[in-house]
Write a structure and sequence with these properties.
Radius of gyration of chain B: 28 Å
Number of strands of chain B: 2
Order of helices and strands of chain A: HHHHHHHHHHH
Shape of chain B: flat
Radius of gyration of chain A: 25 Å
Strand content of chain B: under 5%
Helix content of chain A: over 70%
Largest sheet of chain B: 2 strands, antiparallel
Distance between the termini of chain A: 46 Å
Largest sheet of chain A: none
Largest interface: A-B, 91 and 92 residues
Distance between the termini of chain B: 39 Å
Structural class of chain A: mainly alpha
Strand order of the largest sheet of chain B: 1-2
Oligomer: heterodimer
Number of strands of chain A: 0
Number of helices of chain A: 11
Shape of chain A: flat
Chain lengths: 288, 339
């Protein structure tokens, strides 16, 4: 047995294959370290730059004029208001459409079309969504508004919720549906009382992922909600949001603004990462 | 549906013996009510799913409507005109289209091999214990909003490129025929090359997670058979896993490409926003999405606005095709797996 190993290990063909294998393996390891390296690098710089500017003023003061100190209160409030409205508009439509795809129309021709279109909307460039809402809301109304921003975000929420709702409902075992049908429950009642309950955690995950997705979105807000330097809760007027303020402040030449931009960036990243981790842990507990 | 209705039925059923006629009538009423709510719910869900279709239709229609003035003024020449002059109101899409394609190409050239190797590592080499945490970390990279990549690119990555990487490239390739034109000019830091690299970092997690998913779906028997005849890990991956998952990998590639083409904020920060087509990758350029993001709110005049919307229409058309191919391929893979 030892003789054989030595013989094969010495043959040029075999050692060449082994070398190639070793090279490929180390390349794979290097690629993984490279990929994770970016995450560490980006988060590291973000924390380093952002944490210095983190103070109570960030949450209590308005965005300042150039050269002055201030906070991000109006931007944070605007972001929260538009995100909540977007979820309120987008989630019901998303859940209902996802329900149709998974329950009533699982094998319909039209469902496969909707599924296909939804997947395309899911990865469509968000700036195009902004143009769309500009055309249907901002141009006819004649002014930028918080409503337009909320609708633009809602258009992004819908495909995410449709997709997760459908996926989670198809995971519900059919025996549950059959059991409900056998006691004479109509489909609507079966869906609301049994399927939704079984898929609850998954659907909530979908909504959280949608919130995570839109809380960092900048492109669709640039020309729908625009921006506002002051406190504004008027949905018919331009509304500030954290991402747009970061965009404006980061590209400005003022050091105070740039510092606030970093702080805002840290806030958004922490929020988004926390949301996606919570969302993940919800489904992980469900499946285990 | 409230619990009281269910109680109705059972109460009716209990009293049933006393008054059969009344019972039959009320039972029919309950049934009718149940059927009605079911019909309403069915209609609602169907309407919502049709709304998704209407959404896409609305996006296309509104873009075509908004782009009409520019397209009728410039015609097909819009696609091949490099000029972008708000003063004389002459607009062409060549520079943004060029920038979009070049930055996406750079991104895919880097992200695809690296993404495939990470997926190879995760599915074949990684110790079980680390598999989940590393997978999650890569997916977190996908969750970071693009504006963060943008601000990081502007303040950290671009200066680094300007000081170290770009001078090195310019000096070392100065006498190589093709490369000297590709890597020419003053090192600005910002520009198409930097934008392409940032896009690569952004697209990497998408390519990785889809490749990992399709690699995971390879039946173990195939791999075991290959190992059984003495293949090395790399050979199993190269000659069994990759050919088997070809369609899915291409689908993931197209999905990543769709992201790269449409990405706005990360690019806008570092591209330099110059409407030029230049051979050097270090020169500032622009992409479709960066042009729209930078100029839309400042555009004066209908033709300027309309030209920007026309750019949006072109972008939507390109990404639609790419994403449609991606979904078609991944769908085919799903059907193949279902058999």
């Amino acid at each position: 047995m030892p003789d054989m190993t030595i013989a094969t290990a010495n043959s040029p063909l075999y050692s060449g294959r082994r070398r190639r294998n070793a090279i490929a393996k180390s390349l794979a390891l290097a690629a993984t370290i490279f990929g994770l390296g970016w995450l560490v690098l980006i988060l590291g710089v973000l924390i380093y730059q952002g944490i210095g500017g983190l103070s109570l003023a960030v949450f209590t003061e308005m965005t300042p004029p150039p050269g002055a100190a201030g906070g991000l209160l109006n931007a944070i409030a605007g972001s929260i208001v538009m995100t909540v409205l977007a979820v309120l508009i987008g989630t019901p439509i998303g859940i209902l459409a996802g329900t149709y795809l998974a329950e009533y129309g699982r094998h319909d021709k039209i469902s496969s079309v909707v599924r296909f279109i939804n997947d395309i909307l899911l990865s469509a460039p968000s700036i195009v969504i902004g143009l769309f809402v500009y055309e249907i809301m901002v141009a006819p109304m004649g002014h930028f508004s918080g409503w337009a921003g909320a609708v633009a975000l809602a258009v992004i929420v819908i495909p995410v919720v449709v997709r997760t709702t459908e996926d989670m409902l198809t995971l519900v075992p059919d025996t549950l549906r059959e059991a409900a049908a056998s006691i004479g429950l109509p489909r609507a009642h079966m869906i609301v009382r049994i399927a939704y309950r079984a898929a609850q955690a998954g659907i909530v995950t979908g909504i959280l992922l949608a919130v995570a997705r839109i809380s960092g979105e900048t492109a669709p807000l640039l020309f729908t909600a625009l921006n506002n330097q002051f406190w504004s809760m008027n949905m018919n007027a331009p509304m500030p949001s954290l991402p747009v303020v970061i965009f404006q402040f980061a590209l400005s030449p003022y050091a105070e603004w740039q510092k606030l931009a970093w702080t805002g960036a840290l806030l958004i990243t922490v929020t988004v990462l926390a949301l996606s981790i919570i969302a993940r842990s919800l489904t992980a507990r469900k499946s285990s | 549906m409230e619990p009281s209705r269910g109680r109705d039925v059972s109460e009716v059923a209990l009293k049933g013996a006393d008054a059969p006629v009344a019972v039959a009538a009320s039972r029919a009423a309950v049934l009718r009510r149940l059927r009605l709510t079911d019909m309403i719910f069915h209609g609602l869900t169907r309407g919502a799913s049709l709304a998704v279709l209407a959404l896409l239709g609305g996006v296309i229609l509104s873009l075509v409507y908004g782009a009409a003035p520019a397209l009728s003024t410039f015609g097909f020449g819009f696609l091949f005109d490099e000029s972008w002059n708000p003063v004389t109101e002459r607009f062409g899409a060549l520079a943004p289209i060029f920038g979009t394609l070049v930055t996406s190409a750079i991104a895919m050239l880097i992200a695809v091999p690296v993404g495939l190797m990470i997926a190879f590592f995760l599915t074949e080499l990684c110790p079980m214990m680390l598999r989940r945490p590393i997978g999650i970390a890569i997916e977190l990279l996908a969750g970071i909003p693009s504006i963060i990549y943008g601000i990081w690119g502007l303040f950290v990555f671009a200066p680094f490129m300007q000081q170290y990487v770009q001078p090195l490239f310019i000096d070392s390739f100065a006498n190589v025929p093709v490369l000297s034109t590709l890597f020419a000019g003053p090192p600005y830091g910002i520009g198409m090359f930097t934008a392409g690299l940032i896009l690569a970092i952004m697209v990497l997690p998408f390519v990785t997670s889809i490749s990992r998913d399709v690699f995971d779906a390879v039946p173990p028997v195939l791999k075991e058979a290959a190992y059984g005849v003495g293949c090395t890990t790399w050979e199993v991956f190269r000659y069994v896993v990759l050919p088997y998952t070809r369609i899915g990998v291409i689908g993931g590639f197209m999905l990543g490409l769709g992201r790269a083409l449409g990405e706005t904020m990360a690019v806008t920060f570092v591209i330099g926003n110059a409407h030029h087509v230049s051979a050097s990758l270090f020169a500032p350029g622009t992409t479709i999405s960066a042009s729209i993001a930078n100029e839309f709110t400042e555009a004066v005049g209908d033709l300027y606005t309309s030209s920007l919307i026309a750019l949006g229409l072109i972008l939507f058309f390109i990404t639609f095709c790419v994403l449609a191919i991606a979904r078609y391929l991944l769908l085919r893979l799903q059907k193949q797996g279902g058999k």
